[in-house]
Amino acid sequence: MTQSATQEQDEAVAGDDRIQVHCGDAYDLMATLESESIDLLITSPPYWGLRSYGQDHNEDILKQWLAEDSARVQTDVPPYEWYRDHGGVLGLEPLPEWYISHLVEILQRGAAALKPGGSMWINIGDTYFARWSSIRHDGRQGLGDNPRSRRRTPMGGFRQEKQLLLIPSRFAIAMQDLRWILRNDLIWHKPNIPPRPEKDRLRLAHEHFFHFVKRPKEGRAKYFYDIDQVERGARDVVYYDFDEIEQVEGDETEISYYDYQEVEDGAYDVVKTHARSGSDGHSATFPIDLITPRILSSCPPGGTVLDPFCGTGRSLSVAAANGRKAIGFELHKPFHEAATKNASEAAGQLSFDLGDDVTEMGA
């Protein structure tokens, strides 16, 4: 059911041009963005193998891909355009390797639009492998009576029964391979996860929120970051006792960074916040208290926030309510309509602080 931006591209603009919501595939819409126009890309893309969001997917797509060339193997990943044109939906790839490659490919399309001092925050969850998996049409795993379908996933390599697939880690490494600098792997601890039937493992109660910045041609990455806006206790601040190490013949004198005197109380990169009920038919919306510190710390006042998988527009509304401009992409029409409505409501609450006070962190 996927359509390219050339086939259909609806746009809603709320509050003049300060909030824009576009209906279409992020792969296409990324290419329409103006170069170096985005301060922050923040999103939670569809996770692999969990839900379809009501979209039709070609379950024979792996067979079709292999049939085109006898030399191909399952882990040879087709380009996203081929996958989409043959009825594939992001998140429903037959193999996690395909999903990771396609997600990276889509995000990379937006690299030119991100400012040199911009940031990218990507929320992504993990999953366990099962040869026969259950795909919900909507709704969280383990909750509700939402209809579901069964599908078979080929085993091989790390794809083994009961295996935690480490999809977030594999995604992060794939991004690093494309020159992105990973600054934080923030852990979102969800204390209210629903019960699961398994009796031979701990419950999966966290998701990853990766912070990427651009790798410069030379030197260390520098980017906007206002650490005063992050959660209390989440600042990784250490006060060091700088001692010179005894000089070794032939070596220059070094400075010791190991004998610290004090660490800020409660410093950590784990954020505890409850998973919230969905809105407007979307079951996996961002918690406001999870994304607000990301937006305030990584996008300057008056800057532009992009969510290429915006769902019902939670990130857009939060950005707008905090004096940032916002752009959202959404493929699913009902979610796009909800995001448009929510953006229009948020636009009436805009209060811009266009100060030019910019904080850069080079550490």
TrEMBL record:
Class of the enzyme per the UniProt entry, highest EC level: transferase
Keyword Isomerase recorded: no
A Pfam family: N6_N4_Mtase
Keyword DNA-binding: yes
Keywords: DNA-binding, Methyltransferase, Restriction system, S-adenosyl-L-methionine, Transferase
Coiled-coil parts of chain: none
InterPro entries according to UniProt: DNA_methylase_N4/N6, MeTrfase_CN4_CS, RM_Methyltransferase, SAM-dependent_MTases_sf
Enzyme Commission code: 2.1.1.-
Family, as annotated: Belongs to the N(4)/N(6)-methyltransferase family. N(4) subfamily.
Protein name, as recorded: Methyltransferase
Organism annotation: Streptomyces melanogenes
